Amino acid sequence: MNRIWARCLASALAAAVMVLTGFVTVPASAQTLICSGVTKAEVQKCDPAYAAALSLPHWRMFAGHNCVNYVAWRLGVNGVREPRILMGSAGDWAANAKKIGVIVDRKPTVGAIGGWAGKNHLVYVEEVGPGYLITSEDNYPGYYRKGIYRKIKVTTGQSAYPTQFLHFKDQLTSAAPKASGTTKVGSTLTAAAGAWEPSGVTLKYQWLRNGTVIPAATATKYALSAADLARNISVRVTGSKTGLKTLAATSAKTPAIALGTLINRAAPRADGTAKVGSTLTALPGTWAPTAITYAYQWLRGGVAIPGAAKSTYVLTAADLGTRTSAKVTGTKAGYRTLTKTSAQSAVVALGTMVNSVAPTVSGTPKVASKLTAMPGTWVPSGVTLRYQWLTGGAVVAGATARTFVPTTAQLAKTMAVRVTATKTGYQPLAKTSAQTVTVARGTLSNTKAPRLSGSALVGSTLRATSGTWAPAGVAFTYQWFRGGKAVAGGSRTTYKLTTADRGKAIAVRVTGKKAGYTSRAMTTKSTAVVRLTPSVTVSAKPGTAKVAFVITVKASRVTPSGKVTIKDGTTVIKTLTLSKGKASSTFTKLKKGNHAYSFSYAGDAKVAPKYVTKKVRIS
């Protein structure tokens, strides 16, 4: 250990001589002091890492301020293992380095150890620039002032510029990368890596947005997107080479990225026929970049049409006689909005109506039966329809409603309806339905049937009422029937029953007639069978608490049969059967006083019923 101390001390003393003769006399313009320090606190300001290691020996060199201990520390920091031989004093390093295969040449590189042939001093190369080096060194105390650490910039050709370099493990060097290109969204920035030493360095790129890594942006070019708007972009270039410590260098930040510029290469156009009712379609044209969102505004004579903000527009009556165009506005995140307007259309003409389903006539074509015009299907919607009825192809004066009721004037003629559609902004269009079959006779309607009034008794008069018919003005004829057969001469509204009608039911047929209508006959319900009118007489022989009755029923040319029901007040007291037109009965145990008796003859097949009363006083 004493021998090592002696060599380190000799190295330091020799280095001090070299520094005094080689560096101190260099003009100020040839070298520039960047930083220096004697005490640990002063060194801390220049190189905090070395300040912490200053009091320790490295590669078996003398600890503290001296050049060999310092460069040994720097090499150790760079990953160089202590050689198998003792490197010795500063003047011995070049020879010993060659023994272990370290290249010694005159080419400065970052991380190399600089020295002078025949001089006993070493420095560490921090930076290599055009015509200059930046080196760092430490000096043995007591010879060069106090022990001092320095970092200086020296100019090529000056005595402080090393004449040989020991390449234990050079460090990569790089000129600052640059990012060039137009700084707006949509443009592409290109990375220039700068000059790297030594040769054969592998470079990798990483683009940064406001200093933060942009995922997947690792090529030499970077396309600016909306995410970059108003942000600063830089590129970090990382160099690597086997045996050397990886180095990363970052370019200066760009100015804040501005909004991009949309490009319209082919102008918008409005496709379609320029007439009311037609649909115009706005085609945006050709734009760059892709994925642009388009908004539309239709213009009438150059003025925006309220609410017309879709890619299609249906021309309305308001557009008639004007020219229409489409304004297309392109938007995309990160780009300035751009608006382009199509050329104007031809002057908008009247629209064309379409009748896709022809008009028809609904209803039965006959007198007094309502016909209805079915207008069919028209395009566009909202048309106004007018009607004109035709008979036999000729106009029916005044028949302009949707419905029409044929009269006798149309009897045996065909009917049709002509429908005319109009709408503002469109050419009117008229369509005529197919002809109907010829108008038939009307049908008389009866809402109240004819009926008979009167009693079905020989000698009585029956009366026929025609009922209620439509339309007005119907004339009637009558025909009476006996037992279903017409009664000769029975053609009036009344009919007197005779013995010839006895045993038969009577009805009357009423026939309605009106010009242009089919006659209609209706028969009343038949009467009951015509019977004779009887005479009913009651003889009473009252006594004490009793009374005896004899009932006699008579009719013309027949002997009545049947039953007679006797009531005392409302109480049925007995029903008797006629025998040869008579019946009798005696009632006893009657209460004293006046009694009101009723006698109801039920009638038979030839004789009609009859009802009589009798008052009797019981003693």
Q: Which tags fit this structure?
A:
Immunoglobulin-like; single chain; 42% strand; endopeptidase fold (from Nostoc punctiforme)
Any guess at the CATH architecture of the largest domain?
A: Alpha-Beta Complex
CATH T-level fold name of the largest domain: endopeptidase fold (from Nostoc punctiforme)
CATH class of the largest domain: Alpha Beta
Specify the number of helices. 5
How far the N terminus sits from the C terminus, by CA atoms, comes to 184 Å
Tell me the name of the CATH homologous superfamily of the largest domain: endopeptidase domain like (from Nostoc punctiforme)
What's the total count of β strands? 56
**Content of β-strand:** 35-45%
Spans of at least 5 consecutive residues with low confidence: 1-29
Q: Please, how many domains?
A: 6
Largest sheet: 7 strands, antiparallel
In helices, the fraction of residues equals under 10%
Average pLDDT number: 92
> Based on CA inertia axes, which overall geometry fits?
elongated
**Major β-sheet strand ordering:** 1-6-5-4-3-7-2
Structural class: mainly beta
Descriptive overview:
The protein has 619 residues and is mainly beta. It folds into 6 domains: 2-167, endopeptidase domain like (from Nostoc punctiforme) (endopeptidase fold (from Nostoc punctiforme)); 174-260, Sandwich (Immunoglobulin-like); 262-351, Sandwich (Immunoglobulin-like), CATH 2.60.40; 353-442, Immunoglobulin-like (Sandwich); 444-523, Immunoglobulin-like, CATH 2.60.40; 535-618, Immunoglobulin-like (Sandwich). It is 8% helix and 42% strand. A 7-stranded antiparallel β-sheet has the order 1-6-5-4-3-7-2. Strand 12 and strand 13 form a beta hairpin. The longest helix is centred in the first third of the chain and has 21 residues, at 2-22. The radius of gyration is 68 Å and the shape is elongated. 30% of the residues are buried. Mean pLDDT is 92; it is low at 1-29.
